[in-house]
Amino acid sequence: MRRRILQRPQPIASTVDLPIGGILNEERHMSDTTTLPAPSPNPVRGRLNSVFFALMAGYINQRLAGHKREIFPRTGGVVAEIGAGNGPNLRFLPPKTTVHAIEPNPYFHRRLERTAAVHGIDLTIHSVPGEAIDLDDASVDTVICTWVLCTVQDPAQVLREIHRILRPGGRLAFIEHVAAPHGTVRRIQRLVRRPWQWAFEGCHTDRDTAAAIHAAGFVSVKITEFQFRSSFVPVRTQIAGLAVR
Ligand SMILES: C[S@@+](CC[C@H](N)C(=O)[O-])C[C@H]1O[C@@H](n2cnc3c(N)ncnc32)[C@H](O)[C@@H]1O
């Protein structure tokens, strides 16, 4: 299968500081003439996160497989996956599916490529953030996001970009851990917020991602809330669903 890694060219018209978990101040689209600097993950935590998620992939997939099978495309098409990580979602796609992986952390790329090869996926890695995706308007059938909108710097901007690249009728398939409504889990989420963000490169334990998706201009949004039963209490409250452009 074809595999490529795309790094955007770097002419920038205005200064934008965008490490992973950095700052994106300006709304921008592919039609803009500006481009963004490649984000720079912490070299130690960037690598550790890749190893951690590689070790945890089987466990996480075992718990989320039902949701993934329900919402991911069964017939391939053109897929963009935001924050694809090591590629734990690729096994759920039909072989030969074209996947554009928007993955700004280069420490994930080697494992991502290997996973794509194992599952016969036609992969192109885009080393850019979800806030500034280098794909054309209406060029994608499905966007996949799992455990990513918790981590990106600007979820509303990422959702604008997802909406832009999806064709009319195209679908965003998502699974995200979110703020618990109240009680002990919510208190734990608040308690661990800072160390968690540090360890997991910007991951927020308590985002209201359902509200962000509802506000993103999709024609229909279907969301199921569920509990991720594990000892990782801060990510216990989860949502899965589909939003149609
Ligand atoms: C918790 S991991 C989830 C990886 C994978 N989606 C999964 O389900 O295992 C979060 C991912 O989001 C990526 N990420 C962080 N900031 C991002 C951004 N601004 N745009 C796109 N991806 C980002 C990270 O590099 C990492 O791969």
From TrEMBL:
<protein>
    <recommendedName>
        <fullName>Methyltransferase type 11 domain-containing protein</fullName>
    </recommendedName>
</protein>
<dbReference type="InterPro" id="IPR013216">
    <property type="entry name" value="Methyltransf_11"/>
</dbReference>
<dbReference type="InterPro" id="IPR052356">
    <property type="entry name" value="Thiol_S-MT"/>
</dbReference>
<feature type="domain" description="Methyltransferase type 11">
    <location>
        <begin position="81"/>
        <end position="174"/>
    </location>
</feature>
<dbReference type="InterPro" id="IPR029063">
    <property type="entry name" value="SAM-dependent_MTases_sf"/>
</dbReference>
<dbReference type="Pfam" id="PF08241">
    <property type="entry name" value="Methyltransf_11"/>
</dbReference>
